[in-house]
Amino acid sequence: MDVKKKRTFRKFSYRGIDLDKLLDLSSEQLMDLVNARPRRRFQRGLKRKPMGLIKKLRQAKKDAPAMEKPAV
């Protein structure tokens, strides 16, 4: 009788917008949601490392099966 319960993950949302919709937003739409410091960083342009991280995270999220944590 060792039935393992499936682990449920908390659904992530940022300012009321779910993660799936956040990933689909363009940079301009995302800039409307964030505070002044991230907006300033976006306006000045993201360098290679932060941009690479964003691409890697988006790809990992798309490749992950439903209801599973993405491997990053």
From TrEMBL:
Keyword annotations for this protein, in alphabetical order, are:
Ribonucleoprotein, Ribosomal protein
GO CC terms: cytosolic small ribosomal subunit
| Gene Ontology terms describing biological process | ribosomal small subunit assembly; translation
InterPro entries xrefs? Ribosomal_uS19 (IPR002222), Ribosomal_uS19_SF (IPR023575)
Query: Could you state a single Gene Ontology molecular function term?
Result: structural constituent of ribosome
Cited PANTHER family: RIBOSOMAL PROTEIN S19P FAMILY MEMBER, SMALL RIBOSOMAL SUBUNIT PROTEIN US19
Protein family (similarity comment): Belongs to the universal ribosomal protein uS19 family.
For this entry, the protein name equals Ribosomal protein S15
Q: Which organism is the protein's source?
A: Podila minutissima
Source organism phylogeny: Eukaryota, Fungi, Fungi incertae sedis, Mucoromycota, Mortierellomycotina
